[in-house]
Amino acid sequence: MSDAMDVKSHDFVLGNSGGIASIASHISYNEDDNDDEMPKVTKAVAAAGKVIEKTKGAIAKAATKRKAAPEPEIDAPAAAVKVTKKRKTKKEEDSTPLADRTAVSSLKPAMHIGAHVSAAGGVQNSVTNAIHIGANAFALFLKSQRKWTNPPLDPTAKTQFISQCKHHGYSAAEHALPHGSYLVNLAQADEEKANQAYTSFLDDLNRCEQLGIRLYNFHPGSTGGDSRAAAIGRIAAQLNKSHKATKTVVTVLENMAGSGNVIGSTWEDLRDIIALVEDKERVGVCIDTCHAFAAGHDLRTPEAFKKTVDSFNEIVGHKYLKAFHLNDSKAPFNSNRDLHANIGTGFLGLRAFHSIMNHAPFAGMPMVLETPIDRPGPDGKPTEDKKVWADEIKLLESLVGMDAESEEFKQLEEELQERGEAERNKIQDQVDRKAVKDAKKGTRGKKGAKKKKDESDESD
Which of 112, 175, 179, 207 does the annotation list as catalytic? Predict the structure, then answer.
């Protein structure tokens, strides 16, 4: 039989008037025990009493040292309590969505619109940053695009990227569009530099496959002064090599603005590269609207839009079109200048994007904004304002199904054009002055050539 009573140890706190009650609460009685054990209870209580008596002196001494708290007056008004609202930290502000994501199924056609977001701190952060701006598609750099050598893909970042895409309903295979490094030139003729470019390129493709990403966008490259045909052949050879070294990723050529020796400003350049690629299922095209416009592919009117789309389909083929970079242009038509402007504020204008948003064959493709988001901060220095992208995504989505002849559209078009007028005028002036300068150079060149010819004729 167990003891009828158990006195448990108890720590006393000076000044605690519940000392006795505390002890009593720790005396337990077992209902199954008989009365023969009751003397033990008496002894235990007596022992507890002695402990209490010993503590009385200490309690009394402590009480004399404590200053008695004054009794509150009954009629005294309660002191007002100031409630301080806790400010959000920058991290909390950055994680709060600037806009909710639109259900793509509500858009007819279903357009997946987003932006090129930051992956600083790990590729998994690109998903968070896409959610932040209400994006249904996104682009990212898979590693630093300013360095040739980078650490391998972090396993934790990989796991988190995949799980976050799944959790938030992003299809990494269909609507994530990584951008290649600007350092890479697959048309490079120098063997050592070509190997360096290929190694970096292949590393990105392997990262795509680890992350479940199917589309990889990159700039074709530059001739470096070599013939166009030879440079295109080298690009295709590098693609064929990379396709054999990987399994699923589709290498997506981006059209270019047409400056210098850059390849890809004409549909024919893209066609010729694709023609030399052995696995046609592993190659595609991303149309950058600013680049296309700067290279002479007009999109400003419904008629111009149709003509440009038809020419692409005829020369390259619609089946190769995989994605879009949506950018207006600060520079005028056919200027060969790659200057991105915010949607509707540039020389392309809102009508071009209305045509894109309502062209059913483009549905389902990732459409990525690369528009400028730097705005003057409180100190006057430029700072990123991601709300620009959040607003532009909603603007583009609003164009789906909108009547381009409505007052709503015309007013919106006018407001955006007015907003970008100063910048357009500035760039137009630069282009005009350059044209005059080039014309003078051309005239001097012709005169010089004629003079040399005349001198040569005289010497004969």
Answer: 179
- In the residue annotation, 291 being an active-site residue is answered as yes
The answer to whether residue 179 is catalytic is yes
Q: Is the dihedral of CA 352, 355, 358, 361 positive or negative?
A: negative
* Global confidence as pTM: 0.77
On whether the CB atoms of residues 252 and 322 are closer than 8 A, the answer is: yes
- When the candidates are 3.20.20.150, 3.40.50.1980, 3.30.70.3280, 3.30.420.60, the CATH number that belongs to 104-434 is 3.20.20.150
> Is 218 exposed, middle or buried (CB count within 10 Å of its CB: 0-12, 13-18, 19+)?
buried
Options 291, 297, 337, 351, the catalytic residue: 291
Active-site residue, 36 included = no
| Those residues with Cβ within 8 angstroms of residue 384's Cβ, 6 or more apart along the chain or in another chain | 373, 374, 375
Q: Locate 331 and state its tokens.
A: 């520079």
**320-367: per-residue pLDDT in tens?**
999 999 999 999 999 999 999 999 999 999 999 999 999 999 999 999
- DSSP-H helix ranges across 141-288: 155-168, 172-175, 191-211, 228-245, 267-276
Residue 216 bears catalytic tag? no
Catalytic residue from among 338, 351, 392, 397: 338
Closest residue by Cα to residue 218 from 277, 284, 170, 153: 284
Q: Read off the tokens for 321.
A: 């079109």
